[in-house]
């Protein structure tokens, strides 16, 4: 059986929109906690000659930020702030009850200095080293939608096309090759059919399915959550229990029964499927395995909740250092014990071996059952930020996992493209509408708290696409149109509705969404008034300096209009 580990890297555009807590610090934290440690691990594996066929995606909006000189400067300042915090903590902890924590400040100082040196060695460009790893055959890099727009809820087909077509164009520009795979934003899918998510939504009759847009953009596969293929329950960070009657295994491989799943599994998650809403648009769907994925994902039942690992929620202020371990399930923050980095690394190795035992058991069970064990695949997709940011030892786990694969196992790691090339899917399947969010549906993005965002966005989409044909033919209008497209795409980011729904920093998401919509309206007003073109160009340039992404956006707009 093949094993495909897929990581999805995404953050909304935050550069030039403040620093703390949800401006550039958000991106810098992800770089220090996840992207740099993951790069370090993958490079170590490559030097050791250990195969690490990771399938990883970077959304175009994230990749644009990771090559930005503004980001490089912000991360240098962030490194310095963290190093200063180490020095301050070592001084103020002396002579207090927390004096035993001082050695941990030295641990953080060494780690930060090492990661800063790595960042400087790649000239402040985090895309280039991942691109080099793919060019050397170590990993596969997926593409994605331009700004991670929640495609099933976008009001115009042209908007969906822009997200995926521009996403592919930007991937080729930044990574130097055509991506085979596409990460659907939020794993959100809808089939071909009528579209009217709200009674007052703009009626459009029958619309193409998500797979058709993906195929049109030139992608050959994407990932789907298990419930969309009737192969299990939704993957959600809000779920406490393992799904489907999944078996928990201790580190010796002894099963510990989980909560039974009451539903019926109609299709196997251990194979890829052909999808096509209509002939000629076929792409493949790789289905998340609920059992293996939950073992890594679950906050309560999975590995990240182990008492040895770094506690995410207890932070020392000022400075933001994390000096304590999880300690135990339900332990109050005030009772958390000091973190032991060495013990945590060893625990990550134990969990990596345990995970391989679980994968091997799945492979053996599949081979002995009705499935074709030799041609089967177990797929585990995650947010990249789980590894390092939410689960600090995640990169250590991944390194130990790849080092532990051996020929005695019935499961072997590979990339998504390699599996599909060697084992083309033979079974066709119609996916159900849904996402990998809470409840497995669209409700994290379409609910009473977010209805107003769609009611504002849908008319703006229509106004924009009505303005495009004429604006493309006027030289002075083209830079205004280009920036209007950027503001539309930024307003479409699924992050804003998600943040509003969680209730955390909803004011930030509201401000960002409204700000991009306001700027789009100003640009559309300039396009509608020929006498305002000069001032519109000045406004577009001002906004471009702030939201400096997607430099080659106009050819994609032209293609969409020509294909109408």
Q: Count of DSSP helices?
A: 17
Integer-rounded radius of gyration: 24 Å
Count the domains: 2
In the CATH hierarchy, the architecture of the largest domain is Alpha-Beta Barrel
- Most strands sheet: 6 strands, parallel
| CATH-level-4 superfamily name of the largest domain | Glycoside hydrolase 38, N terminal domain
Report the mean per-residue pLDDT as an integer: 90
Compute the separation of the termini in Å: 44 Å
CATH class of the largest domain: Alpha Beta
Counting helices, strands and paired strands, the structural category is alpha/beta
Q: Give the SSE order as H and E letters.
A: EHEHHHHEHEEEHEEEEEHHEHEHHHHHHH
| Coarse shape | globular
User: What is the CATH topology descriptor of the largest domain?
Assistant: 7-stranded beta/alpha barrel
Helicity, as a percent range:
40-55%
Strands, count: 13
In percent, how much strand structure appears in the residues? Answer: 5-15%
Low-confidence region ranges: 237-263
Topology:
Layout: E1 2-9, H1 24-48, E2 54-58, H2 60-66, H3 69-93, H4 102-121, H5 127-135, E3 139-144, H6 157-175, E4 182-183, E5 193-194, E6 206-207, H7 210-216, E7 221-224, E8 247-249, E9 255-257, E10 273-275, E11 283-287, H8 290-297, H9 341-368, E12 377-383, H10 394-404, E13 412-413, H11 416-422, H12 451-472, H13 478-491, H14 494-502, H15 506-528, H16 533-546, H17 553-562
Parallel strand pairs: 1-2, 1-12, 1-13, 2-3, 3-4, 7-11
Antiparallel strand pairs: 5-6, 8-9, 10-11
Helix pairs in contact: 1-3, 1-4, 1-10, 3-4, 6-17, 9-10, 12-13, 12-15, 13-15, 13-16, 14-15, 15-16
